[in-house]
Specification:
The chain is α/β, with parallel strands linked by helices. It is built from 12 helices and 14 strands. A hairpin with a 2-residue loop joins strand 1 (47-51) and strand 2 (54-57). Helix 9 (294-309) runs parallel beside helix 12 (390-410) and helix 11 packs across helix 12. The N and C termini lie far apart (69 Å).
Length: 424
């Protein structure tokens, strides 16, 4: 057939067709989809192939993807994940079931329990829920409310431990993000997590740990809470546990459940919670990370990356801070002529999302995809897959540093840029 891959010139024709299709998709996207996307619309990348850390665009350019799609810990199209998906497809089993146990689901739960801290795994229950950003949070909140008979849940950084005094009921649960906020990449000190665990246990308040962004080896431990040695009552899981496919679950102590006479049982809502392809991909991902000790690899490589990036805060005026844990790294940016503190955590020294967007585009020009995040959209975040090699990581950091230098140079008319920070 003329123009096929197997005929002379077929590859060239196919490449041209991919470019045209990619350009058309880029033009149509603004009218069809919202602006909030993992790969920002401002980034003119139409991915057509991907493997591991590498993404190839319709124009034939290759990029190092340090956003990992939605934070996939094995990167794009990992062979173990693809094999698991193909097995389900070839088996003839249903691809979607609701409230029915299947061999695929059983294999996933078995593998998941192997990864949990023993204090939780020995008596854990797994509730699947919808894979949207809020479904697992809502499920966990409903669970602790039903189990305790209390209504109020509270974030760890807003909880006053003595708020169970006269006229103030204890909360139904205290919610903790082990990275402080994964969007800002602010790891909570291990001592603080241990103290919080002691306080919640003393007051019979369930501790709910949100591992949607930080789980499956990302921070250098299988679960970020493992760094502290604390054992939570509830774990909220999503993103990485699906092996690049949508999957979410809430793991909790078996004795933490709604009473038989509860008037507000925990909802079983959330479509696609029985997606067999996601469960198979998730089981393969959990097993691969565990068997190949990828959390340890993330810890070692991430520490070297932080050591390489932290001096940039002194070298470039636009870099306010560099922080992270494992292979989750955040570079906070700031305008160089503003000493005023920002309005809240992560907003120090006049931070600006516009500057982060410029850095993101400069990275893309150099073949590097990074994420821009944080409440002020001022944090450039690196989330390479745990399979990244030291050589690949070095290449990514080189490109990021070069992009930061290019952006910092543009601020030279307002402050010294290279070699010293602006006077404070």
């Amino acid at each position: 057939m003329a123009g096929s891959q197997g005929t002379p010139g077929g590859g060239v024709l196919a490449r041209g067709r991919a470019v045209r299709e990619g350009e058309g998709a880029s033009r149509r996207s603004p009218a069809r989809e919202p602006a909030a996307r993992t790969y920002a619309r401002a980034l003119p990348v139409v991915p057509v192939r991907a493997r591991g850390l590498t993404v190839e665009g319709a124009d034939g350019r290759r990029y190092l993807d340090c956003a990992s799609g939605a934070g996939s810990v094995l990167g794009h199209n990992h062979p173990a994940v693809l094999e698991a998906i193909r097995r389900v497809l070839d088996s003839g089993a249903p691809l979607q079931v609701m409230n029915l146990t299947t061999p695929v689901e059983d294999a996933f739960v078995t593998e998941l329990l192997r990864t949990l801290p023993s204090g939780l795994a020995d008596h854990a229950r797994v509730r699947f829920c919808g894979p949207s950003g809020t479904d697992p949070i809502d499920t966990a909140a409903a669970l602790v409310r039903a189990a305790t008979g209390r209504d109020r849940t509270v974030a760890a950084d807003r909880w006053v431990p003595d708020d169970g005094g006269p006229g103030r009921a204890r909360p139904a649960g205290v919610f903790l993000e082990p990275a402080g906020s994964a969007a800002e990449v602010r790891p909570v000190p291990d001592a603080v997590v241990r103290r919080l665990r002691a306080l919640t246990a003393e007051r019979a308040v369930p501790l709910v740990v949100d591992e949607r962004e930080t789980g499956v080896g990302r921070t250098g431990a299988f679960w970020a809470v493992d760094h502290s040695g604390a054992v939570p009552d509830v774990l909220i899981l999503a993103k990485a546990i699906g092996g690049s496919l949508p999957l979410a679950a809430v793991v909790h102590r078996a004795d933490l459940h709604e009473p038989d006479d509860s008037s507000a049982p925990v909802p079983e809502g959330g479509g696609f919670r029985g997606n067999q392809l996601a469960l198979a991909a998730g089981a393969a991902t959990l097993a691969h990370v565990r068997e190949h000790r990828l959390a340890e690899h993330a810890a070692a490589l991430g520490a070297r990356a932080l050591a390489r990036l932290r001096p940039l805060a002194e070298r470039f005026t636009c870099v306010a801070d560099v922080r992270g844990r494992g292979l989750m790294t955040g570079v906070e940016l700031t305008t160089p002529d503003d000493d005023a503190p920002g309005p809240g955590p992560g907003s120090a020294r006049g931070t600006t999302g516009g500057l982060a967007g410029v850095v993101q585009r400069e990275c893309l020009r150099r073949g590097l995809i990074v994420d821009v995040t944080g409440p002020a959209a001022n944090v450039v975040r690196l989330l390479p897959p745990l399979t990244v090699t030291e050589e690949q990581m070095t290449a990514a950091l080189d490109r990021l540093a070069d992009a930061l230098e290019s952006v910092d140079r543009r601020c030279g008319d307002r402050a010294p840029i290279r070699g010293q920070r602006a006077p404070r």
